[in-house]
Amino acid sequence: PLFRFPILKNLMYSLGNIPITKYADRSALESIIKAIKQVKDGQPMGIFPEGKRTYKNEMIDFKPGSFKLAQKAKADISPVCLYDMHKLSKKWRILPTKVYMHILPLIPYEEYKDLDTASLSEKIYNIINEQLTKFKNN
């Protein structure tokens, strides 16, 4: 949705962002191929595997296909746990809001290369969810 706003669209393209639609159409395939090339060239790539925002500190199921890009590029994966992100989307928020980000240990390609996307998705989901539970308990 962010690419629908002209100012944001231009900014995001200038930063190297690639829009990938959830529809299995030609433009989505072209975007994925472009993203794989960028990752192979050493460009970092951020992916939100849930496919949409959540409005509480709970995870929803990951879309296993979101890990195809990392697998095709043979890239290492750096899981990140975000906490309190839902506070940023509250209407009429005036005061500054704290959000927390924990960068988890890198998962080298060699460690997951034999996993299918569903197994890889489950593995990373569990790693991030464990950290999210720690945030909740503190």
Walkthrough of the structure:
The protein is mainly α and 138 residues long. It is globular. The protein folds into 2 domains: 1-45, no CATH class; 47-138, no CATH class. Helices cover 40% and strands 6% of the residues.
Total number of helices: 5
Q: Outline the biggest β-sheet.
A: 2 strands, antiparallel
**What is the distance, rounded to the nearest whole angstrom, between the alpha carbons of the first and last residues?**
34 Å
Give the topology string: H per helix, E per strand. Answer: HHHEEHH
Task: Provide the helix percentage.
Answer: 25-40%
What is the average of the pLDDT values?
Answer: 86
Strand order of the largest sheet: 1-2
Structural class: mainly alpha
Overall form: globular
Kindly provide the radius of gyration, computed on alpha-carbon positions and rounded to a whole number of angstroms: 16 Å
Beta-strand fraction estimate: 5-15%
Q: Which stretches of 5+ consecutive residues score pLDDT under 50?
A: none
How many β-strands, per DSSP? 2
Instruction: Provide the number of structural domains.
Output: 2
